[in-house]
Amino acid sequence: MKITLLGTGTPLPDQHKFGTSTLIEAGGMRVLLDCGRGAVVRLAQLGVPIGSIDAVLFSHFHSDHYAALPDVVMTGAIPAPWGGRKRRLRVIGPEGVREVIEGLWAFTSADRTIRVADGEIDPDRHRIDVGVISEGVMLEENGLRIIAFEVDHGEFVKPAFGFRVEYGGHVFVHSHDTRYSENLIAHAAGADVIVHEVAMARHETLERDPHSRTVLEHHITPREVASVFAKVRPKVAILTHLILKAPDPPSIEELLEEVGRGYDQPLFVARDLTVIRFGASITIYSGETARG
Ligand SMILES: [Zn+2]
Ligand SMILES: [Zn+2]
Predict the structure, then answer these.
(1) 2-286 adopts what CATH topology?
(2) Is residue 290 over pLDDT 70?
(3) Which of 54, 64, 177, 272 is an active site residue?
(4) Which secondary-structure segment (H or E) carries 102?
(5) Tens of pLDDT along 89-126?
């Protein structure tokens, strides 16, 4: 199993950190967990045709986690080496996903009309098989198993999910966006690798800026994420989706210092295109030529 963190950012537009998206490759399957801004560009950097994605699972519907879906659908349908979808895309998401997909059908109609008239695509290439997530096994095929579990991303983002991915005796867990969640800890039992979000702001920022308080209330603190890692005891712990609130944002060093007060094992900070390869050993490397 090979997992690539395509996007490790937040809604903040950043050329180095695209929206959250993770590519799972196992058992001949290619699955995306979320597809935030720029996912299609990261796939192209890897040489993965957009049309080869079998399914997309969504954790929740904040823009930084699903903005690239129209791009995956429309660009993936183009009969080029980097597109070339041969069958319907499967999309599985929280309650509300049917409305998202209905809206997408309308949104993509202008492109579809032109390309169908040109004989470029079959309109069915824009159609999507939709599924609604609930807690439990959401995909099981060719030995790959993806289990959704509820996390706590605040009272108006319900339900929101994290994912546990199992293949060949290995376990990968991605928190997606959440506050401290006992349910995540329970579902992360035995994880080889856990990727978890984190957020940090200075007291002065929180006092002066009500919006930063709202944002921070939806996410986990460095001390809390340390406690999650200490309880799960994964072989590898990785931080992603770092929210370091401006102005005067805390540095990554300050963040790691805080996490280190409650977790004394090695810790990685994810970058876009970080690859996690599961085999006899777990290998982590990064770079846009990773596939070569
Ligand atoms: Zn997010
Ligand atoms: Zn979110």
Answers:
(1) Metallo-beta-lactamase; Chain A (3.60.15)
(2) no
(3) 64
(4) helix 97-107
(5) 999 999 999 999 999 999 999 999 999 999 999 999 99
